[in-house]
Amino acid sequence: MRNEYAADRGLSEADLAGDWHAQFARWFADAVAFGLPEPNAMVVGTADAAGRPSGRTVLLKGYDPDGFVFFTNHTSRKGAEAAANPYASLVFPWFPMQRQVVVAGTVREVPRAETEAYFATRPRASQLGAWASPQSQVLPDRAALEARYREVARRFGDGPIPAPPHWGGLRVRPDSVEFWQGHAGRLHDRLRFRRVDAGGWTVERLAP
User: Is 56 labeled as catalytic in the residue annotation?
Assistant: First the structure.
């Protein structure tokens, strides 16, 4: 199984915005305009204290010059790994556009006020689900999860639902952000913004 990439597409240094954040904003807007399903879906890679990796797809919920934010149960596998080994990778697999964005950086929790503000915007069913699901833990069956959900729904009734204390946002502060554009003959363009010691950034071209 092999798809050929377009010869008339490319990414040159002259194409890039002045910083990774502006470049990501440009490509993210392209992904939305292209009509990709869930363009904010990203693969998050973490590793435990022994270096054993794991990955999963989550939804990006915000980004700014300080990094990329997603929300999770802190007792989940990714939450526990991020706490024990605070580094992560992100991959935005925009394959129909023959593009990827690959991020690597450090992880830290967002301020609690930011978590609570976001949680208040979630649909009520998702708020209840955050309380009901012991994420990443073994369940005996589906019925056990649904029973937990019903119990949580009874507990909160019609009242407001606060953010669970074990649930919150994680921010990946990038050390590198790579913009990958497919090209014919597998001679893909890979341009990476990399943080340097002085606090600035440099742009590097990587071999495909």
Answer: no
3-state SS of the chain?
A: CCCCCCCCCCCCHHHCCCCHHHHHHHHHHHHHHHCCCCCCEEEEEEECCCCCEEEEEEECCEEECCEEEEEEECCCHHHHHHHHCCEEEEEEEEHHHCEEEEEEEEEEECCHHHHHHHHCCCCHHHHHHHHHCCCCCCCCCHHHHHHHHHHHHHHHCCCCCCCCCCEEEEEEEEEEEEEEECCHHHCCEEEEEEECCCCCEEEEEECC
The residue type of 14 is A
- 79 CA to centre of own chain: 13
Identified catalytic residue from 99, 186, 192, 194: 186
pLDDT band at 7 (very low <50, low <70, confident <90, very high): low
In this predicted model, what pLDDT tens digit does every residue of 79-93 receive, in sequence order? 999 999 999 999 999
Dist. CA 85–CA 47, nearest whole Å: 7
